[in-house]
Write a structure and sequence with these properties.
There is one protein chain. The protein has 251 residues and is an alpha/beta fold. The chain contains 10 helices and 14 strands. The chain has 2 domains: 65 residues, Winged helix-like DNA-binding domain superfamily/Winged helix DNA-binding domain (Arc Repressor Mutant, subunit A, Orthogonal Bundle), CATH 1.10.10.10; 174 residues, Rossmann fold. The strands form 4 sheets. Strands 6-5-4-9-11-13-14 form a 7-stranded parallel beta sheet, sandwiched between helices. Helix 10 links the parallel strand 13 and strand 14. Helix 8 runs parallel beside helix 9. The longest helix has 17 residues.
Length: 251
């Protein structure tokens, strides 16, 4: 039985070589085992440092950084919604608002139904599409499209941003464990994020609690650059990590 388990685990790794992210339910069906049995295999592989697990998915270790947003939106959905409901309180009617690419900022979109006459600026094609049903102006920043994240970057995007004065910017992050500020895995998005910080009156970092335990590759700001950080309930040790922010708001 143990040999069969190990053989199945090796087959899982082979499948992940072909596709960096797989649904756990579909894997269980493929191997003709229960999801409970498969999760035990994945637990072993995760302990070995060979895979990452998220809600309903397993990911190749080196593939997690570039997860499609379709997968990321399924992680920590309740925590992100709590943050989104708090975030919209800091938006004024008829203001110019920037939404960074990401699943937490995407969660804010639905709450713009509570606001009037905003101009919403974003480099995220997914966010722009989600806003179409609402009565706000949408300014999609032009530029080179990153197909993986469906966002625009590069010199054109930076040039567009130079002509926009932003009242409130909601910024995301891939994590900041052992860092003095937020980080991103995307080198292409780095300069866009920094330009947005320059162009914005009120800068707000939105991050669910999981980001305290993750780190991206490229730092793009310091916590002190933000007027507010909106996150979920955290313990004193976690609060100390972001204590240089001007204000910490608990959603």
């Amino acid at each position: 039985m143990s040999k069969n388990n190990e053989k199945r685990r090796n087959e899982i790794l082979k499948k992940l070589e072909q596709q960096p992210s797989l649904r756990i339910k579909e894997l269980a069906e493929f191997f003709h085992v229960t999801t409970e049995t498969l999760r035990k295999d994945l637990f072993v592989l995760e302990q070995r440092g060979q895979v990452n697990k998220t809600h309903g998915y397993v990911h190749r270790k080196d593939g997690y950084d570039e997860l499609p947003i379709e997968i990321k939106v399924e992680e920590n959905t309740e925590l992100k919604d709590q943050i989104a409901r708090k975030a919209i309180e800091f938006v004024s009617d008829y203001s110019v608002v920037y939404l960074d690419p990401g699943s937490t900022t995407l969660s804010i979109v639905r709450y713009f139904a509570l606001k009037k006459g905003c101009t919403i600026v974003t480099p995220s094609i997914r966010i722009a599409q989600s806003l179409l049903a609402l009565k706000h102006e949408i300014l999609l920043i032009g530029g080179l499209i990153q197909k993986k994240g469906s966002t625009t970057t590069g010199a054109f995007a930076l040039d567009n941003l130079r002509h926009v004065k932003i009242d409130t910017a909601f910024m995301g992050t891939d994590g900041f464990k052992d860092c003095q500020g937020p980080t991103t895995f995307s080198f292409q998005e780095l300069s866009v994020k920094q330009k947005v910080i320059e162009q914005s009156k009120q800068k707000i970092l939105v991050c669910d609690r999981s980001k305290f335990f993750k780190t991206g590759t490229y730092p793009f700001a310091s916590f002190s650059d933000y007027d507010k950080i909106i996150t979920n309930p955290i313990d004193p040790k976690e609060k100390a990590m972001i204590d240089s922010a001007k204000e910490i708001v608990i959603a």
